[in-house]
Design goal:
179 residues; alpha+beta; elongated
């Protein structure tokens, strides 16, 4: 939602500029905010640390130690973003799509995994099992290659198999087609 807001920059409307009728329509929702300023600042700081950590993780294969000091956010403003959350049932599961309220763009969703995607994951699990079996056959000829192939194949099989069985959910964020 924040990424889409930053890219689309909808017209800003300050609460002080609302007329009496508009304020009476939305005031209960606004005044029922469940987060105080301290909680919001803590979340902002944690999110900033996560963003920086993820940037470093993207540049390397792992981080052995990550020390960071994040100071208290300053000049904090409350920004209210309208959104629509649509829930729907498919099979025995409930899925959702989140739409930006200012332009109707779908910004995040959990959706059913289609049969083709499930077949891809099952094929990946089968390929992983074949690689592991191939590695097992070559352990006596080349122990390093054999063990690497067995571990790599087992990892591929586990990853693809767990994706195929994880409850038929596909989580997407960003540019989604409107349902």
């Amino acid at each position: 939602m924040i990424k889409h807001f930053s890219k689309s920059r909808p017209k800003e409307l300050k609460l002080i500029d609302l007329d009496e009728e508009s304020w009476s329509r939305i005031k209960l929702e606004l005044l029922n905010t469940e987060m105080d300023e301290l909680h919001a600042k803590l979340m902002m700081r944690e999110d900033a640390v996560d963003v920086i950590r993820n940037r470093f993780l993207a540049k390397s294969d792992r981080i052995e130690r990550f020390d960071i000091h994040a100071s208290e956010p300053e000049d904090v403003r409350l920004l209210l973003l309208p959104m629509w959350v649509v829930y729907y049932k498919y099979g025995n599961s409930i899925f959702q799509t989140v739409f930006a309220g200012w332009d109707g763009k779908a910004v995040a969703a959990t959706e059913p995994m289609n049969l083709f995607r499930r077949a891809e994951y099952l094929a990946g699990a089968g390929v992983g099992a074949l690689i592991a079996a191939f590695g097992g056959a070559f352990v006596s000829a080349s122990p390093v290659f054999g063990i690497l192939a067995m571990v790599g194949g087992a990892a591929l099989g586990w990853f693809a198999g767990s994706k195929a069985l994880e409850g038929q959910r596909l989580e997407r964020e960003g540019s989604l087609g409107v349902i």
